Structures are given as structure tokens and as C-alpha cells.
Amino acid sequence: MPTLSHLITRRHQVLPGFGLTLGFTLVYLSLIVLLPLSAVVFKTLSLSFAQFWEIVTAPRVVASYKLSFGASLLAAGINTVFGALLAWSLVRYRFPGRKLVDALVDLPFALPTAVAGIALTALYAGNGWLGKLLEPLGIKVAFTPLGVLVALVFIGLPFVVRTVQPILEDLELELEEAATCLGAHRWQIIRLVILPALTPALLTGFALAFARAVGEYGSVIFIAGNLPMVSEITPLMIITKLEQYDYTGATAIALVMLAVSFILLLVINSLQGWSAASSSSTGGRKS
Amino acid sequence: MAGVTNSVASHTANHVASGVPSSSRHRDYQASPATREAPWVRYTLLTIALGFFTLFLLMPLFAVFTEALRKGWGVYFAALVEPDALSAMRLTLLAAAIAVPLNLVFGVSAAWAIAKFEFRGKQFLITLIDLPFSVSPVVAGLIYVLVFGAQGWFGSWFGDHDIRIIFAVPGIVLATIFVTFPFIARELIPLMEAQGRDEEEAATVLGASGWQTFWRVTLPNVKWGLLYGVILCNARAMGEFGAVSVVSGHIRGLTNTLPLHVEILYNEYNFAAAFAVASLLALLALITLALKTYVEWRQTATLSPESREQAT
């Protein structure tokens, strides 16, 4: 494809295959991703703005945003605290089964979401191992918004652990030693030396967990109970509209979700840039 | 948002590929008073971290297997060899068998163009490749309904020619390709960028053809990263639920994949059978994690001699 070669910025190219590989990449990307995604925009354009606004601000849909975003924020927050603690334990402490725990942290990536969903429901339902303990205390988890939170915590945990872990591993011990020599207390070191170095990674992990949670469907619908206005998540609203053959309504909500994902993608990209820059300045090895 | 998974996974590969010696992994933090906490602090933190791990990760995993065997091995195996379950297995394998090789060819091709050449718009292209990770699986299914559904762009054309895409196998395959689209490319791009193009250029100058260079120089260098991407891509392809659920139409024995079969059994209150099929998928997840850990270990092992050379 000779038309692509003018894109090249480096002259005297030795290696072959630029036109072929870039050409194939662009065609495949367009057919599988870009063209189908553009359908969401074109379909929504068939609506007037007033119609669009009416669909995406309907009370039931707004209730679903509140649950989806609220539970996702809370889940990402919980994951940031416990994920950081887990990453810290994996890097700093030696305990039996550490390698196994390290490998199993990725379970939510590998376990199909539907399986996670029914497993969590079985655990937290009234007759489940955990439900049995919690219900006498008056805490109902399964089929309530709390269940949504539990599922989103499960889904998001590895994002925080896997972003914080490499930064912790690369942290310069000299900083802590210097701080100790200067008379800092262990708690002061953690607060003033370690935590600032981890902040970009913690924020990145938070954003990744949040982004994943907002769009999550499979693990949530089983445990949520899906009561209108109470425990319906936004992706479920799209499914509900589709089941009523209301394709335009489904697409309008999908456009809102796509816009949110796009903003989150930009935020995550800039956070990762910051994370990379700050880890190379504080934790980087001198070469 | 379907796993932004790989930006994390590739972080690990990045770490390995950039030749940073991972000596820090073997540091003994508890030996020096400067990096040590009091024992009671250490044990408290460990207990909280492992308690959280057990509560949120281990217990759901155990629950799958316990619930699956609640009614005994007879019911368990009956649920697995039932015709609908077998046809769901076949469809899941078929979708993965088409999606993974296609995304493999795409991943290699995209990585070759991006890592071995400098061109305008490269960063933008990488962002576009990542896009399917940040799209909710439900939206991923919806877009194919909009394109190929009865009222979609090409729906009437396919309808006239009696070809069904949506609520049929092709739709399931397409949705699977979409959600697993970035996995292999995201793994290979940073790896091949880190390795540069010196070796390939040397091979070309010595008279090797493009294909010879790729097969004999590039491929051996990236094989572990490639395998890593394939493993993750396959796990997602076999386990995808949301996107496939939208385009499937849930026709028993025809358009049900294993995760959809689990959903149907569960909604029919056939819990033992649902968990039996789910336990197969959980086993797949455990095998995936084991292979992934092995590949990570091999990747570090093959790269560490080089990185030691670079460090000195």
C-alpha cells in the first residue's frame, strides 16, 4: 500500500512490511472497532436533543447512574486501601503461600464474570456461608445495592494491586534508610516518604478499578436483584431497553456510557504518564 | 469497562522488557531496621490483607466448587455431558478458535508496524487499539446489533440473503473478537519497542527476506510475550458474558456459550448444574493463572542474563 508510506517520518527505512502491516492494522481496526462504535453516534443522531435528553435523564436511568457511579467510586476506594495493603504485604513480607496469593490476585481477570456473579450470590444469599452470618445482624447483601458493591470490589481488586506492586518493588531503600538516620519515626517514613511515592500509582489503580466497575455487567446482575430505582446498574438499563426492542433508547444510554469511558481513558492515560514520570524520578535506578 | 486489564498486565511485561533487573524482588526488607516494622504492626497488616484476600477472592472460588458438588459427583457429571452443555462447550471453543488467531495476526501485524517504524499518529493509533478495553461489554454487544441487527445498517442486506449474524453464531464470534481485540497487541507492542530494530536490520542487510527476519529473529525474541497475550486473550474469549449475551439471543443448544449456559441454568434454579458448568470455567481460570505465572517466570529467566549485561 504505497499511500501509507508518506506517513513515515524516518527516512532510509531498512525493514520491509510497513505498508502491509499498517494497512492490515488499520483495516482490521476500522472493521471490528471503529465502524461498529460509530454506529452508536449515528443512531443517536436520529434523535432530537430533547428526545435524547428525555431518555438519558429518565428517573429510572438517573437512579441507575447514581448506583453505578456511587458503588463504583466506593468499590474503587475500598480496593485502593486494601489493594495497597495487599501489594505491601506481597512485596515487604515473607509468609507461607506468598507466591500462591500473588498468582491468585489475578483471579478476577481470569474468572468469567458470570461465574464470579453466581459464586458471590451463593456466598451472600440468606442461606450462604457469609449471608448466614450477616443476616442475623440485619445486614442484607445479596439482592441489594450492597451486593453490587461486593461484586465491584471483587472485580476491581487486581487493578490496584498490580499498579502499586511494581512501584513498591522499585522503591529505593536508601530513602527509608536516610530518613531513619535523620531520626524519622517508622510511621513518619511511611506517611512522608513511601506514600507520596505511591500516590500516582494509587490514583491510577483507583481510576482503573473505577473504570472497570462502571461498565461491569456479568458479576453484578446475579447479586444485584435488579429492582427498578433501587438496584439496577446502567449497563442493565441498556439490556432492558434492548429487550423491549427500544434500540434508540439503548443507544442513547450507551452514548452516555461511551462518553464517560472516553473521559476515564484520558484521565487514566495522563495518570499513567505521571506515574511513569514520578517513578523514574524517585524510584529509578541510576545507570 | 471491559478489562483495562492489559494496561496492568503489560505493565509487568514492560517491566521485564525494559531490562530492569528485578533484584528488588529478592530484597529482605525485614533485615534492616530502616525498612522494618514492629512485629505486631507486621502481623496486623498481614492479617488484614490476607483476610481481605480470603474474603473476596478465595471464598468465591471455593464456593463454586462446593456448590457444584453439593448434590454429588453423579449430578455433577450429568450436568457436564448433557447435550446443551456439550453444544455450549463446542460454541465456546469455536468462538475462541476464531477470535484468538485473528487477534494474534492483528497483534503481530500492529506491533510490527508500531514498534519497528516511526510514523505520524502512532500514539493515537495505540489509544485506538486500547479502546475496546474501556467499552462496557454490554455496549460492545450493542454496537453489533446496531450494525447487523434486523433494523441495522447491513441488516436488511443480510436478511435478503438469508444470512443471520445477530442472534446467531457469527454475532457471538464478532462480539468475542471485539472484547479480546487489544490483548495480544498490547502485550507485543511494548515488548517489541523495547527490543528495538537492530537485530532485524542486521538480518535484512545480510539478505534475509522480511518473512525470514520475522520467523527467525523477531518471533524467537517475543515468543513468551506472545504466549502471555494468547493465554489472556483465550481466557477472556472463553469467559466473556456481557457482550455475547447481547448478541446471542439465548437459543438453547444453538447460540449458548458456556457462560450463557451457566446463566440459563442458574435462572432456572438448577443451581447444582449451573455451578457444575461454572466449575469448568473456574478450572479454566486456574489453568490460565498457572500458565501465566509460568510464562512470567520464563520471561524473566530468558531476559535476566541480557539485563545483567546492560546493567554493567
Structure in words:
The complex is a heterodimer of chains A (287) and B (312). Chain A is mainly alpha-helical and 287 residues long. Chain A has two domains: 1-45; 46-281, MetI-like (MetI-like fold), CATH 1.10.3720. Chain A contains 13 helices and no strands. The radius of gyration of chain A is 23 Å and the shape is globular. Chain A starts with 17 loop residues before the first helix and ends in a 5-residue tail after the last helix. The relative contact order of chain A is 0.13. With 312 residues, chain B is an all-alpha fold. In chain B, 75% of the residues lie in helices and 0% in strands. Chain B is built from 14 helices and no strands. Chain B is flat. Chain B starts with a helix and ends with a helix. The model of chain B is unreliable at 1-24 and 308-312 (pLDDT under 50). Classes of the chains: A mainly alpha (287), B mainly alpha (312).
Distance N to C terminus of chain A: 42 Å
Total strand segments of chain B: 0
What would you call the shape of chain B? flat
Query: What is the CATH architecture term of the largest domain in chain A?
Result: Orthogonal Bundle
Structural class from helices and strands of chain B? mainly alpha
Mean pLDDT of chain B comes to 86
Percentage of β-strand residues of chain B: under 5%
Report the β-strand fraction of chain A as a percent range. Answer: under 5%
Mean pLDDT of chain A: 90
Provide the succession of SSEs of chain A: HHHHHHHHHHHHH
Helix content of chain B: over 70%
Radius of gyration of chain A: 23 Å
CATH class placement of the largest domain in chain A: Mainly Alpha
H and E string of chain B:
HHHHHHHHHHHHHH
